[in-house]
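Worked example 2:
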Amino acid sequence: MRALITGVGGFAGRHLATYLVSQGNMEVFGCVLHADQKRVGLPPNVRVLEADLRDPQAVHDLITEVRPDRLFHLAAQAFVPESLRDPWGTLENNIRGQVNLLEATRRLGLPTRILVVGSNEEYGQARPEELPLREDSPLRPSSPYAVSKVTQDLLGLQYFLSYRLHIVRVRPFNHIGPGQDERFVAPAFAKQIAEIEAGLRPQPVIYVGNLEAQRDFSDVRDIVRAYHLILEHGTPGEVYNICSGQPRSMRQLLEIMLSASRVPIRVKHDPSRLRPVDTPISFGDPSRLRAATGWQPQIPFEQTVRDVLEDWRKRIRQDKEGWN
């Protein structure tokens, strides 16, 4: 069986590739945009190909070469502030890439099972009485990124209804873990703490945004396991939340990291880290996913947060060794 992961060089893509290889019954292919993304953090037996998903011919050639039995479409511009700075860049990247993948699969007549990855950002600002968010909750996207994910989500539904492609849609909530980009909240905290511990900052101060916002965090290693399970056992055309069902504040996340810090650290608010529109609280209902697959989170939140911090300690240590 052949699996193709788009965005294999990204945060979730690397973890998914590692997980699929560990299952032992799949030949795993990955797609990246740039050649320099090819091997970082990936198992050696993952075959990585280069393609711009915005190019229809490049995508057609990719799908023709791999002929995947399973297609995990993870590639996307996923940083909300970047989508606010460049709305069209995010919309074009996320929507066009998926259209090209679906069209190539359809035109080649392949029986590929396709996972379309949306986001909890599709729900936007939920009212208190609407929590926890279920798959039939209203969609109120509050950023161009969220709009792009709603579009990807509904395109997946449309291609199932119109062409009967085997498409399963998911809406993962916030996922964190080792290897995440520092633009996101948990690694942003962890990097600052690791730099302070290493003596790389002039003062032992960590800068933060809104600590009162509450999100539904899961470990990325649990999330990618859910991706695999739902593509095997989910109903084509259906959509599934992937979440813990429990809200946790940014303050709670930070306090776990600070309790593990090796030096005293002060906290200072930075207005530049605030979003123009922020959702006070968001958490989901994973009942539909659990009914279909039996999935449960396996990695405790506290362990995940400490793993993120340890990952950044390792990165900072390697960087310092490289300077010497």
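The longest strand covers residues 166-172. The chain has a mean pLDDT of 94.
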